[in-house]
Amino acid sequence: MFLRWLYLPVSVLSLGFSMARAQTHGPGALREFEIVESVPQATSYGEPGIRRTPTVWLEMIKGAKTSIDVAAFYITDKPGSALAPVLDALTERAASGVKVRLLVDQSFLKTDHVDVDRLRKVPGIEVRVLPADTLTGGVLHAKYMIVDDRSVFVGSQNWDWRALEQIHEIGARIDNTRFAETFASAFDFDWQIAGDPSLPKAASAAVKPPSFAPVTEEDPVLLDSKSAEPLIAFPAFSPPSLMPNWLTSEEAALVQMIHASRRELRIQVMAFSAFHQYGPKGWWTELDGAIRDAAARGVQVHIIVADWALREPMQSYLKSLAALPNITVKFSHIPEAPEGFIPYARVEHAKYAVADGRTVYIGTGNWEWSYFHTTVDASVFVQGAGPAKTLTDIFDRDWNGTYVTTLEPGKQYTEPHTH
After folding, report:
1. Which secondary-structure segment (H or E) carries 33?
2. Residue 28 has pLDDT above 90, yes or no
3. 128 assigned to some structural domain
4. CB neighbours of 57 closer than 8 A, spacing ≥ 6?
5. What ranges make up the beta strands (E) of 114-150?
6. Which of the two residues, 22 and 132, has the higher pLDDT score?
């Protein structure tokens, strides 16, 4: 379990990690784990030394030799945007013989289908649509890419031009074959369901044993094992009904990480609520209880949400947290772009947490019940002082910056205009 490797010897876990070296892909400097950031233009966001999403995506795609698998909520390009070269590179690699598979959600295809339709026509690119709404009542909300079954990118970045230029996002690149094969097994599972959307068949396939040793919470992988600064990591997935049974469930691992915290917990996520916004009405006791219990133990809990979270009843829920000792909630408001209002942009969209300066979670889903129980999402958990420091620096830059406002329980806030 998570606690088993959370308290491994200090000589293994409490090690420094130079992210400046991690971002340099020269001889002797390549690392198997890298934090990646998207930064809204004309803002003070952006940690120095951290590579930006378009650079990393292009590097991964252009370096592909055999296969590229992409799970994307939707794909929306804009001429001249940072996403255009990414899609061009995807097309070029397909033309060169690389097998490209795109798995997208059905819900957005009603309105945002132009770019998916264009990619469908490219020889070497196969597109499938996952009917998550029909199967579970959720959506395919994951955003990840697997290259050559050896390299993975996972994070909050949608395949949307705004996610590369006008939204604050956090992701991670992991270069490890066993880790990538584990992600590929989750992708293959959903890919087969997209081809034959039968839950009974999916349930039968979910119990079949894997043909390799998957990376799980009980059997994590050691990254950068030959360096003086190794990391311990495993992936996790949601929902349990649309993943092989032998993979790690995301909700349980995240709750365990929070329960294991002892001093401080930093959370940055677009939306966070215990109210069931989608699915059966009710209260999300697992994560809500873990957060409140941490605060009761004396853990200093700092939470940043987007101003999009000011909608009710989420605003009231966040106030209920802010009213507790040891919990402070702030919401961010990113100024309008210099060129004017951009729909569904200029927002805090990251989904990550840092516990005690040594444990990191980077995911694709908001912190609401449906994102863990009905919606397809994915994440990476990492143990190591280096990634934790990098994310702490990113968090603290925002926490102490000019775009955030402390949420006061007795004050009513206006919902934002998003589109």
Report:
1. strand 33-38
2. no
3. yes
4. 86, 145, 153
5. 125-130, 144-147
6. 132
Q: Render pLDDT for 330-339 as a digit per residue (tens, 0 to 9).
A: 999 999 999 9
The range of the structural domain enclosing residue 284 comes to 2-406
DSSP 64-89: -SSEEEEEES-EE--TTSTHHHHHHH
Residue 6 confidence (pLDDT) above 80: no
Q: How many domains does the chain have?
A: 1
Which of 219-228, 303-312, 336-345 is predicted with the least confidence, judged by mean pLDDT? Answer: 219-228
Helix (H, G, I), strand (E, B) or coil at 319: helix
Residue 418 counted as domain residue: no
Asked if the structure places residue 235 within a domain, the reply is yes
Residues 6+ apart with CB under 8 A from 149: 66, 67, 177, 180, 181, 184
Give the Cα separation of 69 and 102 in Å (integer). Answer: 6
CATH number for the domain spanning 147: value is: 3.30.870.10
Query: For residue 255, what are its two tokens?
Result: 């709750």
User: Is residue 413 situated within a structural domain?
Assistant: no
41-95: per-residue pLDDT in tens?
Answer: 999 999 999 999 999 999 999 999 999 999 999 999 999 999 999 999 999 999 9
